[in-house]
Amino acid sequence: MEFFNLHTHKCTNQPNVLELVNQYPQEFDATIPYYSIGIHPWFIVEERIEADLAIIESKLQEANCLAVGECGLDKRIEIPMELQQMVFEKQLLLAQQYQKPVVIHCVAAFQELIALKKKLNISVPMLIHGFSKNAQVAKQLVDNGFYISFGKYLLQSRSFGTEFDPDSYRDVFKSVPNNRFFLETDTVEEGIEAVYESAGKYKGISVEKIKEIVNTNFNEVFKIKL
Question: Which of 28, 141, 189, 190 could, after both became Cys, cross-link 146 (CB 3.0–4.6 A)?
Fold first, then answer.
């Protein structure tokens, strides 16, 4: 593995890239080599929760299912937080049962996320995908044992609205310890190689060193032999 893409919605089947492709229970594609599977908070269908969880549990027993997710909490959607938390808790408990890491979608609910990790005593790795917050939030997450994944915002040279400052964001990325970060493309068109190049630039190290760091983190979190 030359490059690892922690989170993508598109399988490109490049020989030098291991892609953790996001899958949903009702749209499962068995041809995808490595994947995560979960109920995203946006797509909770109340009458289908148990059926979706049963599919997730069956897939977690397969070797090429590397993680639960993406799943999590989102305060900016209309689905009630109580329902989101219940669905998220069930997925965290499955991850714990089958000893799989969790890829997390979290919007404006980081305190609730940290509290839930403590309440359920979750010991499997928990990875925040698509992180876009400040250094204070990043430090709190790292201090509480989370990993943080960076992607599209490392590629931006312009502001995403009034709240997003690319320079500050790069400082956040630089502040995260090397043993706590991953890289991803999510839904952007650019390949993971471009994200690695930006990461190397902002960390002030070579792309080869970024590869070494991510590979070490991959081995620590996923503990599989490829």
Answer: 141
Q: Are 101 and 67 in contact (CB under 8 A)?
A: yes
**pLDDT tens-place values along the chain, 226 residues long:** 899 999 999 999 999 999 999 999 999 999 999 999 999 999 999 999 999 999 999 999 999 999 999 999 999 999 999 999 999 999 999 999 999 999 999 999 999 999 999 999 999 999 999 999 999 999 999 999 999 999 999 998 644 454 567 888 889 999 999 999 999 999 999 999 999 999 999 999 999 999 999 999 999 999 887 6
Give me the residue label for tokens 């219940």.
86
- 22 in helix, strand or coil? strand
DSSP E strand stretches across 85-225:
102-107, 126-128, 147-150, 181-183
CB contact burial 196-220 (16+ within 10 A = b; e otherwise): bbbbbebbeeebeebbebbeebbee
Say how far apart CA 222 and CA 101 lie, in whole Å. 7
Burial 49-76, CB ≥16 within 10 A → b, else e? beebbebbbebbeeeebbbbbbbbbbee
Q: Which residue has the tokens 């995560």?
A: 36
Which DSSP helix (H) or strand (E) runs through 65?
strand 65-74
Strands (E), 113-196: 126-128, 147-150, 181-183
Sheet of strand 17-23: strand arrangement = 3-8, 17-23, 35-37, 65-74, 102-107, 126-128, 147-150, 181-183
Residue carrying structure tokens 């043993």: 179
